[in-house]
């Protein structure tokens, strides 16, 4: 197995950007000598947190997603700011989105979320013994906090009531640690 890259970047420029992400356009050369263009979405890494209360219930958010034009069930999540570590970002998102705090944040894994079109890696966490106070949503966030038994959350997934793949991934990755 070779580590040789079959695609070489000849030149790059930012084709479009906003405060949340940007699109980089690469002029590329394939190993057969042909030239082409590849667009890459540059997006900061993110965190996804499964909040578990001391009584072993889970906290989900019902979040309005303008991109889909609908309300969706999710775990707390967000982008990692340049000055934050993944752990700091996870604790901040837990506090902001559900008003939660945890002294026991368990890192589960890091995985690429959009390897065909973008640079984002997600860091998945399980927050044990979450204590709840008041959330501090951003102006663009429209969400409500809900508490469910573990089995109910997985029933929601299996019956198509949750459609956010990153939240489902976080829950499935956390599942082996939920009933201990």
What structural keywords apply?
single chain, 180 residues, alpha+beta, Nucleoside Triphosphate Pyrophosphohydrolase, 2 domains, four-stranded mixed beta sheet, three-stranded antiparallel beta sheet, 3 helices
Q: Looking at CATH, which topology of the largest domain would you report?
A: Nucleoside Triphosphate Pyrophosphohydrolase
Can you count the helices?
3
CATH-defined superfamily of the largest domain: Nucleoside Triphosphate Pyrophosphohydrolase
What portion of residues belong to β-strands?
35-45%
Portion in helices: 10-25%
Question: Which CATH-level-2 architecture of the largest domain?
Answer: Alpha-Beta Complex
Mean pLDDT: 95
- Uncertain runs are none
Output the radius of gyration: 19 Å
Backbone shape:
elongated
CATH class category of the largest domain:
Alpha Beta
First-to-last CA distance: 41 Å
- Major sheet summary line: 4 strands, mixed
How many discrete domains? 2
Question: Can you list the strand order of the major beta sheet?
Answer: 7-4-10-9
SSE class: alpha+beta
Number of strand elements: 12
């Amino acid at each position: 197995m070779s580590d040789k890259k079959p695609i070489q970047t000849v030149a790059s420029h930012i084709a479009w950007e906003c405060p949340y992400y940007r699109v980089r356009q690469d002029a590329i050369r394939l190993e057969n000598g042909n030239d082409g263009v590849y667009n890459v979405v540059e997006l900061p890494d993110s965190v996804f947190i499964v909040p578990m209360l001391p009584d072993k219930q889970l906290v989900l958010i019902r979040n309005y997603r303008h991109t889909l034009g609908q309300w969706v069930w999710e775990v707390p999540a967000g982008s990692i700011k340049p000055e934050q570590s993944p752990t700091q970002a996870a604790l901040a998102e837990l506090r902001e989105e559900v008003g939660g705090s945890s002294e026991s944040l368990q890192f589960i894994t890091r995985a690429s979320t959009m390897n065909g079109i973008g640079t984002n890696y997600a860091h998945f966490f399980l927050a044990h013994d979450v204590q709840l106070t008041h959330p501090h949503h951003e102006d663009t966030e429209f969400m409500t906090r809900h508490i469910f038994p573990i089995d109910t959350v997985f029933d929601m997934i299996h019956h198509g009531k949750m459609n956010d793949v990153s939240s489902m991934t976080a829950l499935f990755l956390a599942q082996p640690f939920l009933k201990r």
